[in-house]
Amino acid sequence: MKFGKKLIEEIKNSRTEYGEALFWWLGQSGYIVKAGGKTVMIDGFLNDVPSRLQPVMIKPEELSGIDYIFGTHDHDDHIDRESWRKIAPVCPDTKFVVPSRFISDLSADLSIPEDRFIGINEGTSSFEADGIRIEGIASAHEDLDYDEKTGEYPYTGYIIDMNGVRIYHSGDCVVYEGLETKLKNRSPIDIAFVPINGRDGKRLRSNCIGNMTFQEAVCLICHIKPMLAVPGHFDMFPGNTADPMDFADYLEIKDPSVDYWIGARGTCVRYRKEN
Fold it and tell me: Tens of pLDDT along 226-239?
């Protein structure tokens, strides 16, 4: 496990062959992924708030070498506004990938020019350039919250193709009618990052919006059959945690053909696509 500048150096110095991807879990739903010379951070939560149960892996002002920063939706542990304010000036070439409906507000609030944002929305806007392709898959957190006037979704999962590897990051999401079909139509998926912290009335009453239970996450994984499943969003805040070994135990019984990864934050994981 590495933290801070040592972690940043490891990421910078790591190399992949075609069909390989490296990732480092940052806690919660945050990951840094490197593949084919491109490095992305998805839902990195780097703000050192008192309510955290886990330490910040990288200080935002020390971050470097990131080509794209993804935020799946406008909650602090996914689009981390306080950290993005610090990252933007020290990483002047970094692009920010967000649900398209938030670009104007984020640009104004964070004083980041709109041309540094890439807006993604299922069915209407995707991105492809410089060896990376990004497509949006609407997420329901706990609802889809589709805006009929603009045709936009506030919660967006991403399909990211880079270096011959296809990655799905659901963001905060519950399984809804049609999600499995959408993902099957985009198979094969190599790596799937999914939440497992669940939901209940007590949390919803306190405005803690929920996600898949570990059982629902396993069932989704069994349907879409990625090469590697990675559970997340279970470690960061009191009262909103889960045990990833429950996910592992259930998946091993439901479909032992699907590999999974559960491990320490800041550990380099190498995925190699099968020929």
Answer: 999 999 999 999 99
Q: Which range of residues forms the domain containing residue 13?
A: 4-272
CATH classification at residue 252: 3.60.15.10
d(CA 95, CA 88): 9
> Is there a contact between 179 and 159 (Cβ–Cβ < 8 Å)?
no
pTM of the model: 0.97
DSSP state of 60: G
- Cα–Cα distance between 97 and 108 in angstroms, integer? 16
Measured in degrees and rounded to the nearest 5, phi and psi for residue 148 equal -65, -25
Number of independent structural domains in the chain: 1
Peptide bond into 188 cis (omega under 30): yes
